[in-house]
Amino acid sequence: MHMGVSAALHARATSGDVTDDEFVTCVRDSLPYAWQVISGVVADLGDGDFADHATPPPSEAERGQLLRALASDAIRGGLERHLGVTLAFQNCHRVAAFRPSAVDGDRHRAFVSPRGQLLNQGPELRDC
After folding, report:
1. What is the spatial distance between Cα 72 and Cα 28, in angstroms, rounded to a whole number?
2. Can you tell me whether residue 59 is helix, strand or coil?
3. pLDDT for 47-100, tens place per residue?
4. Number of alpha carbons in the 13 Å side-chain half-sphere of residue 82
């Protein structure tokens, strides 16, 4: 899964830095399923410190978008800065958003721990 970078944005990146807003717009437009899942998790936060999304993607193309967004340090970091959260990821589709104040709290540590990863494995996720 690649991002659709316009010629104009590519030229700007070639000649210097691009803004987070330009980058996030490219991510939003290139990876719409990932954007929908991640922005939805952030919206679900409301006034809380934690929200997650655990529904498997409808196809491998959507799974690829989510993996691309969360496996790339640049994309993930850009989304975190833009949305004001810390993202966490398990398996091939479970995404969580944490308020910065909740990072390293009990719920965050449990989610990102080896134990949390093992507990989120099951026979239904073997193809993941």
Report:
1. 14
2. coil
3. 999 999 988 899 999 999 999 999 999 999 999 999 999 999 987 788 999 999
4. 19
CA 61 – CA 97 distance, rounded (Å)? 22
1 pLDDT band, cuts 50/70/90, is low
Give the H/E segment covering residue 39.
Answer: helix 32-45
The C-alpha torsion from 83 through 86 and 92 to 37, rounded to 10°, is: -20
Q: Per-domain residue ranges for the chain? A: 7-123
Contact 70, 76 (CB under 8 A): yes
Q: Provide φ and ψ at 50, rounded to 5°.
A: -150, 140
Q: Coil, helix or strand for 53?
A: strand
Which 8-state DSSP code applies to residue 100?
A: G
